[in-house]
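REQUEST ID: PR-0412
SUBMITTED BY: lab tech R.K.
PRIORITY: routine
TASK: structure prediction, single protein chain
INPUT:
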Amino acid sequence: MIFFRNIAGVFIVISDIGKVYVMMDSFDNGRLLPLMEEFYTLQGEGFNMGCAAYFIRIGGCDVGCRWCDSKLSWNADLYPPTPADTIVNNALKYPAKTVVVTGGEPLLYPLDYLTDELHRCGVKTMIETSGSHHLTGTWDWICLSPKRNMPPLDEVLMKANELKVIIENEDDLTWAEDNARVVSQNCRLFLQPEWSVSQNIMPWLTEYVMQNPKWRISLQAHKYMCIP
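STATUS: complete
OUTPUT:
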């Protein structure tokens, strides 16, 4: 059985032997992107926490985490396609020459044009992704945050610079270790407590990291600093 559906302007062919994602020209091969918001701030999580960067949030997500803190990004139809050239020019206005592309799920879209233009202008490119779609774009840093309901592809796991697993309960530690076995030896490993339960789980999560020191804890520092 084969059927078609459309997610965020991306036509998807799904068969009974798996999924094949076929990019159509709805976004002019990445020259247009459904931009939800863009802002200059400090990175709040993971390895690059505290570093200044220009954030680009792209609309559209088919993962649908129940604890997502940016659910307004899920429906890409709410965000008109924006020229990637405009996004690049906006990023160049700020002193930190680093761009973080996030979502939603940014890998729903072809991102080669965006990253090529950013690199041409001397801007470092970073992405935050669930890894559930094929990797597009050329990245200086890939932060992979895998989700159980749509596991990451091996191609993204192997290229990840940073593995950041959201922890809500102790069962999530098994999921974290499953992913840690696949990433490269140079990948940085982080466990991040889900915000709404962070105070309750911190005692056993910190103990786990002390007993398994290959991991580090990531906190959502931007929420403590009251910045985007």
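NOTES: Confidence is low (pLDDT under 50) at residues 1-24.
REVIEWED BY: pending
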